[in-house]
Amino acid sequence: MGSLLLGGLVFVFLSMATSIGLMVRARLPDHHLNAESKDVIRLATAVVGTLSALALGLLIASAKSSYDNAEVEMRTAAARVLLLDRVMAQYGPETDKARQLLRELIEKRLSRGWTTETTDEPSAKALGEYQDIEAVQGDLRSLLPKDAVQRSLQARALEVSGMLAETHWLLVESGKEGLPWAFLAVLVCWLGLLFATFGLQAPANPTVLSILLVCALSVAGAIFLVSDMANPYVGLIRVSDAPLQSAIERLGKP
Questions:
Q1: Residues 212 and 88 sit within 8 Å (Cβ to Cβ)
Q2: CA-to-CA separations, 74 to 14, 170, 204, 210, 238, in angstroms, rounded
Q3: What are the tens digits of pLDDT across the range 171-226?
Q4: Rg of the chain over CA atoms, in angstroms?
Q5: How far apart are CA 75 and CA 201, in angstroms?
Q6: pTM reported for the whole predicted model
Q7: By C-alpha distance, which of 131, 67, 81 is closest to 243?
Q8: Per-residue burial over 233-243, b = 16 or more CB atoms within 10 Å of its CB, e = otherwise
Q9: Under DSSP, is residue 179 helix (H, G, I), strand (E, B) or coil?
Q10: Is residue 136 within 8 Å of residue 98, measured between CB atoms?
Q11: 3-state secondary structure (DSSP) of residue 117
Q12: d(CA 199, CA 15)
């Protein structure tokens, strides 16, 4: 589900909960909303509000952590690509084919994106990324070092290419984790209950209704941010591919 769609649904849900509270208020006898009743409602609302704040804070922290980790992974992958290219350049002209394959891999990554669906699944026009990096490794293994220096460079290149392959498979394994949907559903239910009690206690005047709608929009915005940052390679708030763009400008140079 798209982050914008999710945020919109949460806003609609909270607005409906507020409307239900207002309608129930209009039909309840006066003694159901006397001072003592409102005090009890406020105490119960405080408990649910505290739980909701804690849950939302945990979701935001988790999404921010996922985003930061993805940003580090992007920079690390770009640095390893450059390192691998330089190691192969030091080996000699025998690695020209492998260097070209590496450049094509990065160009494909930039054109197809950085998600499990676009990097791991072969398409009619392109192989999966894991097959590309395995082709680079195959060329490196086929090299015939002439001295100890080239043997050392070959070993180092295979080590760095293995790290790149590991990064790919880590993405595949973690790419479908996403949001804890059960946790998010419970949180939205808690928030709906809160806004229903707001409507139950609020007088139906334009000022109060406007404030409640702004609050609902703010909460929906927070859910949108959580959802978008939990998927850092897609959506509106995504990890920049600038490190890869910078890397590809340096690939293939002597």
A1: no
A2: 37, 12, 51, 42, 11
A3: 766 655 567 788 888 999 999 999 999 888 878 888 888 999 999 999 999 999 88
A4: 27
A5: 51
A6: 0.75
A7: 81
A8: bbeebbbebeb
A9: coil
A10: yes
A11: helix
A12: 10
Length of the chain: 254
Return d(Cα 91, Cα 85) in angstroms, integer: 10
C-alpha of 98 from chain center: 32
Residue 178, phi-psi category: left (phi > 0), alpha (psi -120 to 50), beta (remainder): left
Distance between CA 33 and CA 45 in Å, rounded? 15
CA distance 126 to 112: 10
Per-residue pLDDT tens over the stretch 116-147: 555 555 444 545 555 778 888 888 999 999 99
Distance CA 198, CA 202 (A): 6
- Please state, in angstroms and rounded to a whole number, the distance separating the CA atoms of residues 21 and 15: 10
Cβ-proximal residues to 16 (8 Å cutoff; 6+ apart), any chain? none
Max alpha carbon distance in the chain (Å)?
A: 94
Whole-Å CA distances, 135 to 92, 140, 142, 250: 18, 9, 11, 21
Q: How far does the chain reach from its first CA to its final CA, in angstroms? A: 46
Burial of 140 by CB count in 10 Å (0-12 exposed, 13-18 middle, 19+ buried)? buried
Q: What tokens appear for 60 in the block?
A: 């935001």
